[in-house]
Amino acid sequence: MSNIDTSRDRVTRMQIFTLTFLRVVIGWHFLYEGLAKLYSPGGWTAELFLANAVGPFSAVYKSIATNHTILMVVDQVNIWALIIIGLGLFAGIFAKKFAILGMGLLFLYYFAYPPFSGYSVSAPVEGSYWIVNKNLIELAAMLVLYWFPSSDITGLDKYLVKEK
Asked: Residue by residue, what is the 3-state secondary structure of the chain?
């Protein structure tokens, strides 16, 4: 028998709403970014993003940008990862798995242009950052979604989760 007061473990409707709202808007953001790249007039490529990377893994990013075959694969993987992660989070299906994949993608974006001292970017950037930028914030929000999933209550995962 546990001495834990389980009444404190219950989640309120507002908490579920808030977590669901967070999951849906992040899902929408990923989905929209993927679709915008997929339907970009003239085609979209990550070539400039990778070629100008300044982070600790910039050599890897730059080597991808210079290899046309690998770049084409990376472009397609990026587009479809954004779309699939976005759909999964938006609909609440396999949300924990897609949260992990989304965090991985955001980690790659973050370290291409990390907001650290010593990594200057010559291109114009949105805002002024030091350590924390929008990629890290969205990554942190996805971490919350991983640990406090709403999809088993308000998503398609509720039909896949077996009762314990």
From this structure: CCCCCHHHHCCCHHHHHHHHHHHHHHHHHHHHHHHHHHCCCCCCCCHHHHHCCCCCCHHHHHHHHHCHHHHHHHHHHHHHHHHHHHHHHHHCCCHHHHHHHHHHHHHHHHHHCCCCCCCCCCCCCCCCCECECHHHHHHHHHHHHHHCCCHHHHCHHHHCCCCC
Per-residue pLDDT of the chain (164 residues; tens, 9 = 90+): 344 344 556 778 898 999 999 999 999 999 999 999 999 988 999 999 999 998 889 999 999 999 999 999 999 999 999 999 999 999 999 999 999 999 999 999 998 888 865 555 555 456 566 778 889 999 999 999 999 888 988 888 888 866 54
pTM, two decimals, is 0.84
